[in-house]
């Protein structure tokens, strides 16, 4: 364990150093000046999909070539408010942001340093994460559920009630979120206190709502005051508003204010009566009988309340809310991993059960901090064949450590085959969800064969059958090679900034055709491997009048779905000195990115519920990736049989 802590702390130090040297960047558009904003400077509101910016202490901002400072004021529902030190008019067309994003890393490192010196109880909890065993807690009760769980899901619920540590492997569309809701609900009805955490606010919202729905389905309603959503919500939902921790505390503050009002009025009345008596004495007169009676009645009420000193103490307590105390009272707390690692309110808080969703995307230091909060149960949920953790450091040892996920670490696995071998050997504390209900079966068959050793089956769904104009298969490969695409680099910009104009034209044409089929633009998603390409395509579609098509990287779409997904591989040959040069890039080449490549491609290929279109220059793919994972996958799309 000592070596594990040393590795984690050293790796975080390397990552912190890199973040300081390589600041985070973001480009925002159409910032609107906010009227009546508090504080100095001028506040502007932007749409922003990068929540990490809210942790920045100061942001270097470039607008129209002018560099200035900005401070994040708030980040809520993808709306970022920045306070600029200059008034830039009513609208900022484009702002380039740069900031050091080391806050979460530093706080996580600090948490690990504290845990390193803590009593053995916390160390044993962390050890159970990395060295799970078949030991279980005794329980005879059959868990409650809606009667709709399949055998793998029901088995996982049963195991969660007994296991000290349980790993649930849930591929896309296998009902993982609903089942998590029933696991949490069963903990709650047994009187257990639960922490539910995930990487993103959206995933936390969905999991939290799933738990509330599960309680309704099994007819075990509980008071909303027992549950809280700690932090910002990504979804617009009345239940999330009701359970928001800050709003709950605001309501409690108002309630306390109402409770204290009569006593405050009594003390004010006492003060007024004392002043009147004092004035009589200053005039050489005695208090009137009415004044004496009034004071006597006031003092009697104060005495009945425990005396003046106790009353003042009670009023002081009623004047504010102890947030730590209120959080401790909750039976279910739902929040992000980052909040648990950074908020002082979680320090030394114990939970009977800790449930971590999307844990295969969380780095090991995060998981260590979460495990330290779990007294009896730790449920680790994710898909080790989807997105891995991300690290920026160039320190090879630190990067390898931070990009390892908890599944492959505990399993000591380098391949999907080794992961399944670990699962097969340890059925007592692992579960694999083997039936998917979301993807079209033709695409699901490819994903099952390529990513899950053929173990993923397709269950019955309520999805509408294919409509006129839709192909018999739900996946299509558009080979751009006949159009002779050439990769270019954006002039005057640092780093790898690829531009493939032919692919952009194909994407625009595909979106146009989907629109002609009557498909809503908000049900179309475009996925690309590189962030800078996101902005290029987004701007092109915006100018073409397609403003509701979502464009993002693979990470943008993790845990989400659209009916129609267009995946652009982007890469083609690049002209250098008049000659075509073909080369590979890290996100698509397992020789450079290891197991992350199939995981990234799995996410990209499994985001569509109805139709997937992949745009690829197959001439380039065959030359560079022919014997690699991407090449084999695309060839299989061409010849699925």
Q: Could you please describe the fold and organization of this structure?
A:
The protein has four domains: 24-99, Beta Barrel (Thrombin, subunit H), CATH 2.40.10; 121-222 and 331-432, P-loop containing nucleotide triphosphate hydrolases (Rossmann fold, 3-Layer(aba) Sandwich), CATH 3.40.50; 251-323; 451-638, P-loop containing nucleotide triphosphate hydrolases (Rossmann fold), CATH 3.40.50. It is globular, with a radius of gyration of 29 Å. 43% of the residues lie in helices and 20% in strands. The strands form six sheets. Strands 9-10-8-11-12-7-13 form a seven-stranded parallel beta sheet, with helices on both faces. Strands 1-2-5-4-3-6 form a six-stranded antiparallel beta barrel. With 641 residues, the protein is of the alpha/beta class. It starts with a helix and ends with a helix.
- Poorly predicted runs are none
Computed CA radius of gyration, to the nearest angstrom: 29 Å
- CATH class annotation of the largest domain: Alpha Beta
| Principal-axes shape call | globular
- The appropriate CATH architecture of the largest domain is 3-Layer(aba) Sandwich
> Do you know the CATH topology of the largest domain?
Rossmann fold
Hey, roughly how much beta strand do the residues contain?
15-25%
Summing up helix and strand content along with how strands pair, one would put the structural category as: alpha/beta
The figure for the number of domains is 4
The mean pLDDT is: 89
Q: Give the full name of the CATH homologous superfamily of the largest domain.
A: P-loop containing nucleotide triphosphate hydrolases
Task: Tell me the number of strands.
Answer: 24
How helical, in percent, are the residues? 40-55%
Biggest sheet details = 7 strands, parallel
What distance separates the N and C termini?
A: 49 Å
In spatial order, strands of the major sheet run 9-10-8-11-12-7-13
